[in-house]
Write a sequence for this structure.
């Protein structure tokens, strides 16, 4: 028989992320997590303080998956790369944006906070003032979290499941095209897009708008 793997914080967080991915945030408990790891629940407290500590840990872990953008890129290219990296990392683990959006988790480590700092730096390089950078950051985060919310049914559905004609069909039969002509026209098109391609298009529009407002800093003499 192979020796049992020693329990570590990394093992606990790995198991917690997998368990939350299948059972959701509500299904993640110390008891279930201990059972998954084959230990007593009390053994977990040698590595994590409580469920909040676990959620903070898995959020930090997922944000740490985001690759840093090449500092040699233009500000708009860096901003796009960071936003895309954030979207893809969170789409792989939709319980994490749910935990953050519901204030059950916060980012606590330098590595996890680095994408925000890099994004902030890109917007300052674009020439935006403090208020402009604040608004730009909020716009990017709104796009990332909003896109995930709409395409994963509140971060709970399989992230790879797209809107299909079956999702739209019930609404087609309910809407009166004479009373809601524009919505009736749009509904069939909702099943034609792709989650990531729609996000990319929205991000392109957002960054193009920010570029209009930006005044790139001139290098000092």
């Amino acid at each position: 028989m192979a020796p049992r793997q020693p329990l570590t914080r990394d093992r606990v967080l790995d198991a917690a992320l997998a368990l939350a991915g299948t059972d959701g945030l509500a299904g993640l408990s110390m008891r279930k997590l201990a059972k998954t790891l084959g230990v007593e629940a009390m053994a977990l407290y040698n590595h994590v303080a409580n469920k909040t500590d676990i959620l903070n840990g898995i959020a930090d872990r997922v944000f740490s998956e985001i690759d840093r953008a090449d500092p040699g890129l233009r500000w708009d290219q860096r901003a796009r790369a960071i936003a895309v990296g954030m979207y893809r990392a969170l789409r792989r683990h939709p319980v994490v944006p749910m935990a953050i959006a519901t204030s059950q988790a916060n980012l606590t480590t330098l590595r996890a906070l680095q994408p925000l700092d890099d994004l902030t730096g890109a917007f300052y390089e674009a020439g935006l003032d403090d208020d402009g950078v604040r608004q730009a950051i909020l716009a990017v985060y709104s796009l990332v979290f909003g896109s995930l919310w709409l395409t994963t049914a509140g971060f709970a559905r399989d992230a790879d499941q797209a809107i299909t004609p079956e999702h739209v069909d019930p609404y087609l039969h309910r809407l009166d095209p004479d009373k809601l002509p524009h919505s009736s026209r749009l509904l069939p098109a909702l099943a034609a897009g792709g989650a990531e391609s729609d996000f990319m298009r929205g991000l392109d529009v957002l960054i193009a708008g920010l570029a209009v407002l930006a005044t790139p800093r001139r290098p000092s003499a």
Summary: The chain has two domains: 9-48, 69-213. The chain has a mean pLDDT of 87. The chain has eleven helices and no strands.
